[in-house]
Design a protein that fits this description.
Distance between the termini of chain B: 52 Å
Number of strands of chain B: 0
Low-confidence stretches of chain B: none
Number of helices of chain A: 6
Radius of gyration of chain A: 19 Å
Largest interface: A-B, 34 and 33 residues
Low-confidence stretches of chain A: none
Oligomer: heterodimer
Largest sheet of chain B: none
Order of helices and strands of chain B: HHHH
Strand content of chain B: under 5%
Mean pLDDT of chain B: 86
Structural class of chain A: mainly alpha
């Protein structure tokens, strides 16, 4: 177990992902706000309970309200706007998450030969879940 | 690792206090959310495309108020702590108030999470 060396200054992966982590975190706040406001505009105030509203806030997908008593799920939000919003939430969330996983792993492994291998594995996992998620969004 | 000294379990006695607790919860919650989101995407894919019983069972479990109460602890804590980190990164001179900022964070977190979970538990219990 080795500690990681301090990242290089300048324009590199560590700096870019540092910036991306902050920006995507703020972006997820904004997207959650858009989801909540959109839900309210589409009638969530009268028809939806709090857990359903929060699931919608984080990810407005019909799969999220299967167990909820909503009159017609596909009416207001099976359109391109919410699909783009969901793809943005998915991209920001999954990329933020897998970059976090990479940082935690590299905090404990440090610079070693396995770093390249683990980065490859994490990249493939990131791509796999991103493509699968986009497929689920566009097919629902 | 403390310049070559063997520490072992002694490391757990590090008296980090509030900021360290926030760091630990941020990390554990982040990893938990990566695992949850990954499994949720996979189970949604299985449920939607293959009509799999396992995917449906997992998604029903994920929609239960018991699971969501735990998940929202991590989500809301991670969101508030991330916001605190961003603000402290923008104004590094406030880093000397890091301990106080974690207290401020708990002061915001406890009513926000407490009220949400209170409503969710009342809804969950009355739905039975």
């Amino acid at each position: 177990m080795r500690t990681r060396t301090a990242p290089q200054r300048g324009f590199n992966l560590d700096y870019l992902m540092w910036l991306f982590t902050r920006l995507s975190g703020l972006g997820l706040f904004v997207l959650a706000l858009i989801g909540a406001v959109g839900a309210m505009l589409l009638g969530a105030r009268e028809q939806v309970d709090l857990p359903t509203l929060m699931r919608w806030t984080y990810f407005p997908n019909p799969n999220h309200v299967v167990n909820s008593s909503i009159p017609d799920v596909t009416l207001g939000w099976a359109n391109a706007f919410w699909q783009i919003m969901m793809i943005l939430v998915l991209f920001f969330g999954v990329t933020h998450g897998f970059n976090g996983l990479r940082m935690v792993i590299e905090d404990y492994l440090g610079q070693s030969v396995s770093q390249v291998l683990l980065r490859g594995v994490i990249f493939l996992l990131w791509l796999f879940f991103l493509v699968m998620g986009v497929f689920v969004i566009l097919a629902s | 690792m403390a310049f070559g000294k063997k520490i072992g379990l002694q490391g757990l006695r590090y008296q980090g206090g509030g900021p360290m607790l926030a760091w630990v919860l941020h990390r554990i919650g982040g990893l938990a959310m990566v695992i949850f989101v990954g499994m949720h995407i996979a189970s949604s894919f299985l449920m939607q495309q293959l009509g799999s019983d396992l995917g449906t069972a997992l998604n029903t479990f994920y929609e239960s108020w018991q699971f969501q109460a735990v998940l929202y602890f991590f989500v809301i804590f991670h969101a508030l702590n991330g916001l605190r980190i961003i603000l402290l990164d923008l104004r590094p001179q406030f880093l000397k108030f890091q301990r106080e900022s974690t207290w401020l964070q708990w002061i915001i977190f406890i009513p926000l999470y407490g009220l949400t979970v209170f409503i969710m538990i009342m809804n969950g219990l009355s739905a039975k």
